[in-house]
Write a structure and sequence with these properties.
Strand content: 5-15%
Order of helices and strands: HHHHHHEHEHEHEHEHEHEEH
Strand order of the largest sheet: 3-2-4-1-5-6-7-8
Number of strands: 8
Distance between the termini: 31 Å
Mean pLDDT: 86
Structural class: alpha/beta
Radius of gyration: 21 Å
Number of helices: 13
Length: about 325
């Protein structure tokens, strides 16, 4: 069974978060076409500019505008609401192929127990916080969870994960700062087996994607886990900060090459992020987007839904 959206109020928070600040996400469609009956090249050109400013990327932008042009030729864009609906449909169709929730239950039932998740990303993306949020989510869903503090380069990261463990009453396997991260991951897997845990979340160092030594360390963690369980890790999550814009694309590319990323978590959509980079990432890499985050609390992380995200970007739907 796939992990499904669980927070009823998440869509409202997402819609409000994505429409903060001046971007195409809050563009006034009535301003673009004041006569509401004429969607011409000037309107489409301004929309294209707004798309690019929102980090959607050239390739995705081209496809979106092409769809709008075709709808215009067919006479479907009779007013600005039609433009909004067509745009939302185009965005959703790009996102639907990557809106793939984790299939944790079926994996566990198939023998992958504990289900090992390697959480990766650079410093500042909210990686350790995301690890804690996921632990809360999985425990709420009835799973027995364990955490591994394999970001041994930062004492603060170890302490932060321990705090999550205490708050959630979840065991945390940790060693002293500067310990071998791969050894921590290995010990955690052995402990998770002994305690018959369903899920093991391994928090790794917040490495810069340009630091080859740290990327080599991440590969080592993966290899060591593989020696203990030939199928582990079963999921490699990359946490990306939506506010970094096009730099997130570079991070995704480097981590994908280094450790074969199997899923993404897009965080900090409650900040200055315009959200368009989610479209760009989906178009370029096709990596499943598992979760998105809009805040610091556990309930501010939820399963990614293509339709909800597209409509939230365009202020469609009830946000009250």
């Amino acid at each position: 069974m796939a992990d499904k959206p669980a927070n009823p109020g998440f869509f409202k928070r997402l819609r409000k978060s994505l429409n903060r600040g001046r971007s195409w996400l809050s563009v006034d469609f009535a301003r673009l076409a004041p006569n509401r009956g004429r969607i011409d090249d000037a309107v489409l050109e301004e929309l294209e500019t707004e798309l690019l400013l929102a980090d959607v990327g050239v390739d995705a932008c081209h496809d979106i505008i092409e769809t709008l042009e075709q709808d215009a030729k067919r006479g479907k864009l009779t007013d600005t609401e039609n433009v909004r609906a067509s745009l939302a449909g185009s965005l959703a169709s790009m996102l639907e192929p990557v809106a793939k929730p984790l299939e944790i239950d079926s994996q566990i039932e198939g023998g992958h127990r504990p289900f090992v998740i390697l959480v990766t990303g650079i410093n500042g993306t909210g990686k350790t916080t995301t690890t804690g949020k996921l632990a809360a989510r999985f425990k709420q869903n009835g799973h027995k969870v364990m955490l591994a503090a394999a970001d041994t380069f930062r004492a603060a990261a170890i302490d932060q994960l321990k705090a999550w463990g205490e708050r959630l009453d979840i065991p945390v396997i940790a060693q002293k700062p500067d310990s071998d991260p791969a050894a921590v991951a290995f010990d955690a897997l052995e402990a998770a087996r002994a305690r018959q845990c369903d899920v093991l979340l391994v928090d790794t160092a917040g490495r810069l994607h340009t630091q080859s030594g740290l990327m080599d360390e991440l590969r080592k963690i993966r290899r060591v886990l593989g020696k203990a369980d030939a199928t582990a890790p079963h999921e490699v999550l990359l946490v990306l900060d939506a506010g970094t814009g096009q730099n997130a694309l570079s991070q995704a590319e480097q981590f994908q090459q280094a450790v074969d990323v199997t899923g993404l978590v897009i965080t900090k959509l409650d900040g200055t992020a315009k959200g368009g980079v989610v479209i760009a990432i989906a178009k370029r890499f096709g990596i499943p987007i598992r979760y998105i985050g809009v805040g610091e609390q556990a309930e501010d992380l939820d399963v990614f839904d293509a339709h909800d995200f597209a409509t939230a970007m365009l202020s469609i739907g009830d946000a009250d």
